[in-house]
Specification:
The chain has helices spanning 15-27, 40-49, 59-63, 78-85, 103-109, 156-168, 178-210, 220-228, 233-242, 244-267, 270-289, and strands at 5-11, 30-36, 54-56, 68-71, 94-97, 118-119, 122-124, 145-148, 172-175. By secondary structure, the protein is an alpha/beta fold. The protein has two domains: 5-176, Rossmann fold; 180-268, 6-phosphogluconate dehydrogenase C-terminal like domain (6-phosphogluconate dehydrogenase C-terminal fold, Orthogonal Bundle). The strands form two sheets. Strands 3-2-1-4-5-6 form a six-stranded parallel β-sheet, with helices on both faces. A three-stranded mixed β-sheet has the order 7-8-9, covered by helices on one side. β4 (68-71), α4 (78-85) and β5 form a beta-alpha-beta unit. α4 (78-85) packs parallel to α5 (103-109) and α7 crosses α10. The radius of gyration is 21 Å and the shape is globular. It starts with a strand and ends in a 17-residue tail after the last helix. The structure holds 1,4-dihydronicotinamide adenine dinucleotide (NAI) and 3-(4-hydroxy-phenyl)pyruvic acid. 3-(4-hydroxy-phenyl)pyruvic acid (ENO) binds at residues 100, 125-129, 189, 228, 300-302.
Length: 306
């Protein structure tokens, strides 16, 4: 694989940054990768495990001379981090991010970046419930989608290079506008995470009350919920606070459907339940027939391309 950038700077060294680093190394996609993390502990861990060619003690040092800067921090602090890096960016550099929410991140970051710097927001649809510098692996993005959300008028060459980086890291790249992205992700990722958090919370309450063995005897569906509900609390707090409108819209619809199902159960309306489950089964089968299924071990960890 050909080198895409001379120097890439990763800001925030958690799951996504560390996975991107290993994928860049695997593909020979950059000459040098610098990294910065806020905490001494994370920087020490990064040095210990060889995460980044050079771990820097300041953002200034990490971004100096970088032709690509990737913001890999929780979405709630993207703006603050953009303000920190802005004075140190090289002219003509590209700044991107990997945040799970796009419109709010664009509003936070955009105003801080100087003219002559290309800002191309991004979001790899791949992850796990693990976080931190030790959690990354080179294959995370293989055959997953990565969505780029360039604002109008963005330099086409800058977009092509960022696309080449993600493709080199194994991903399939598509472009989308920010509002659409946030609505789609509210349906496919954000609301499901909230439902998983709730379900695990309910089961935990129940366990406390009855002292039963909810967790011990949990079936596969509930185990998937517990995996998802083990995801990083800071990251997910920020997702819900920054994708508020789309998430509330989807949760409103979810609640209406849930109430309708609840009513059908109470009134013994088996036809309603059967018709509903028949419709949802057809949707799942349609996904499989279209070749858009995720294979079993990776189920739920990200969207795969057909
Ligand atoms: N975890 C996942 O499955 C996915 C996460 N994302 C997005 O990627 C971004 C990073 O997530 P992960 O790598 O999973 O998180 P992580 O928790 O593994 O790493 C985040 C890193 O950011 C650092 N950080 C936090 N606040 C900071 C600040 N104010 N200044 C500097 N550094 C700070 C943390 O110390 C940590 O090193 C988030 O925006 C998230 O929405 C995108 C796709 C999947
Ligand atoms: O672990 C899971 O189930 C995920 O859904 C991973 C994930 C989390 C957040 C994203 O923005 C994208 C992918």
């Amino acid at each position: 694989m050909a080198q895409v950038y001379d120097r890439v700077a990763l800001i925030g060294l958690g799951l996504i940054a560390s996975s991107l680093f290993w994928a860049i190394k695997r593909g020979g996609l950059a000459g040098e990768v610098t990294g910065y993390a806020r905490s001494d502990e994370t920087r020490a861990t990064a040095r210990e495990i060889g995460l980044c060619d050079r771990v820097c003690d300041s953002v200034a040092e990490a971004v100096a001379g970088a032709d690509l800067v990737v913001l890999c921090v929780p979405v709630g602090v993207m703006g603050a981090v953009a303000a920190e890096i802005a004075p140190h960016l090289a002219p003509g550099a590209t700044v991107t991010d990997v945040g799970s929410v796009k419109a709010d991140v664009i509003a936070q970051v955009g105003p801080h970046l100087p003219d002559g710097v290309h800002f191309i927001p991004g979001h790899p649809l791949a992850g796990t419930e693990h976080s931190g510098p030790r959690s990354g692996f080179a294959e995370l993005f293989d055959n997953r989608w990565c969505l780029l959300v360039p604002v109008e008028g963005t330099d086409a060459d800058a977009i092509a290079r960022l696309r080449a980086l993600w493709e080199g890291a194994g991903a399939n790249v598509e472009e989308m506008d920010a509002e659409h992205h946030d609505l789609v992700l509210a349906v496919t990722s954000h609301a499901p995470h909230l439902i998983a958090y709730t379900m695990v919370g309910v089961a935990d309450d129940l366990r406390r009350v009855t002292d039963s063995e909810v967790i011990k005897y949990s079936a596969a569906g509930f185990r998937d919920f517990t995996r998802i509900a083990a995801s990083d609390p800071t990251m997910w707090r920020d997702v819900f606070l920054t994708n508020k409108d789309a998430t509330l819209e989807i949760l409103g619809r979810f609640t209406e459907e849930l109430f309708a199902l609840q009513r059908a159960i109470r009134t013994g309306d088996g036809d309603h339940l059967h018709a509903y489950f028949t419709r949802t089964r057809a949707i799942r089968r349609g996904i499989i027939e279209a070749g858009q299924d995720t294979d079993a071990p990776d189920f739920g960890r990200g969207a795969r391309k057909p």
